[in-house]
Amino acid sequence: MIEPAGDVAARATAGFRQRYAAEPAGRWAAPGRVNLIGEHTDYNDGFVLPFALPLHTVVAAAPQDDERWTIWSELADAPVEFGPTEADKPGQVTGWAAYVAGVVWALRAAGHPVPGARLAIASDVPLGSGLSSSAALEAAVLAALVDLGGLDLPAERQPRLAQRAENDYVGAPTGIMDQSAVIRCRAGHALFLDCRSEEVEHIPFDLDAAGLAVLVVDSRAPHRHADGEYASRRTSCERAAGLLGVPALRDVSPDDLDDALARLDDDETRRRVRHVVTEDQRVLDTVALLRAGRVRDIGPLLTASHASMRDDFEITVPEIDTAVDAALAAGAYGARMTGGGFGGCVLALVDAERADTVAAAVTAAYAERGFAAPGHVTVLPAGGAHRLP
Ligand code: GAF
Hints:
The structure is a single chain. By secondary structure, this protein is of the alpha+beta class. The chain has helices at about 5-20, 85, 95-110, 135-150, 160-170, 175-185, 225-245, 255-260, 265-290, 300-310, 320-330, 355-370; strands spanning about 25-35, 45-50, 50-65, 70-75, 80, 115-125, 190-195, 200-205, 210-220, 335-340, 345-350, 375-380, 385. The chain has 2 domains: about 5-205, Ribosomal Protein S5, domain 2 (2-Layer Sandwich), CATH 3.30.230.10; about 210-380, GHMP kinase, C-terminal domain (Alpha-Beta Plaits, 2-Layer Sandwich), CATH 3.30.70.890. It has a 6-stranded mixed beta sheet. A 4-stranded antiparallel beta sheet has the order 10-11-9-12. A 3-stranded antiparallel beta sheet has the order 2-7-8, with helices on both faces. The radius of gyration is 21 Å and the shape is globular. It binds 2-deoxy-2-fluoro-alpha-D-galactopyranose. The site of 2-deoxy-2-fluoro-alpha-D-galactopyranose (GAF) has 11 residues, from α6.
């Protein structure tokens, strides 16, 4: 198991000591994630296959006697403090601290007696790169408060609660994937999640044994209206499900796709539906290949997923498409954008020994197009949120 970088935990601990002149009662870590395949399927009750990254947010925390919460983050200028009045009303705490207040709010709204606490936060999950830094923060805070308060909230029920914090307190209409990934993933595995039932299967994803690596390229593309575009894709899918008379697009079978498309009234909605229905099937096909140990063979499914996001769901941007094309031209088995879109990261499945060559090809293609240089890192699947020893 890959433990979080010691220095993130050390920074959280040092921050706690410095800020509060006391020792933390414990430290809790939650990872970032990439999604191997299954994009914009979660809020359509469909399937996703993310895995956790060996990059973490760490919360050092201790209970405090009164019912108040004080949070310090190494990334913020000043600490934030709030009590039940602010926590019980979405919108009262804003900015990065809203993710923490949202967790307190969601716990209290579900009837849990949340202990007052002092928290110090450090992280090496990049912000704004689509690697779920917000879910990592929610999950680490949630793990800390559950442990400190001795709350009865098993891991399988935590993602829904963290999602509620993000949807109803922060106000971002995201699905259940990111919170599930950062809480429930297992090292060496991808998480096959049925977003309707929330049942999971841990699918072995042993890149090392296959001589492979996943190269994650940070496109560094500026986010272009990502929040509004995300919400409009979601609305469009829900409207289409209504028109088709199904609870969610997950209920449209690929065999019935042509009939379903013929019943829709405009081309844009048809493209959105086609993406979701074919993407669900690509997740199932990817899982089948991984179960059979055919890791290399998932490459074409990753690339087909990208084409579907680019042409049908229309959520990619030029930097992202450039990175995918360059990785494929340099010999990647498959490549796709990962996450909500309009920027963020690309993942490419590559022979481990060619990872640097593929990364260099992407960097060269960026330079040719005049884009700011991308970032890159190779990753192995890590485990979900946990208390540190
Ligand atoms: C973002 C959201 F938070 C997820 O719920 C999911 O919809 C994803 O975009 C797209 O697959 O990460």
